[in-house]
């Protein structure tokens, strides 16, 4: 990976990085080892690597990483299925796709499968380490140009929401602050941007999002944004 620098969107200390358990999945041994080495050099705790889909599922279940850096083109089981299975079993797992493909269909399929972000393999080492840092704290991370695509898909999905079940319970009441944070999440702002906008800490934003997910019985940011857009909270 090259060494071009990029501006970090979320400041994460060396000590915080050491507490982030990361697993790297890629079928190319040299690339996989290089990514794992770069992340370890940046201070992350690289707990495992894997070279195919079934191996990735087994090892992730054994070592419980916080962030999975995942290629999509894997033998044995495609990356989107790996993502779907692991996030379905552990909604707290953050998945950062690191792929050579910038095809819109691949990006959207990864996000629908539960990926938190999507980075192209042309990214620099600094961009990768920043992306893993941001992914670890729940920020969505996309190669420039892809974030708008994903937000547009949220809007498309929300234009035809699934019908409510006849006995669906009444929606829980969110606080004014939780609603405000939810509205900014739906607009595509990162947690850091929301914190700056509302003059609160990054951790407070995370807490509001987690509380909202719990109240709404949702599992991830994808579902949260769809919920917000369905209710017109994105201002569209």
UniProtKB/TrEMBL annotation:
Organism listed in the record: Streptomyces finlayi
Q: Which residues carry this modification: 4-aspartylphosphate?
A: 71
SMART domains in the cross-refs? HTH_LUXR, REC
Ranges of residues in domain HTH luxR-type = 167-232
Q: Name one GO molecular function term.
A: DNA binding
Write the protein's name.
DNA-binding response regulator
Record Gene3D superfamilies? 3.40.50.2300, Winged helix-like DNA-binding domain superfamily/Winged helix DNA-binding domain
Keyword annotations: DNA-binding, Phosphoprotein
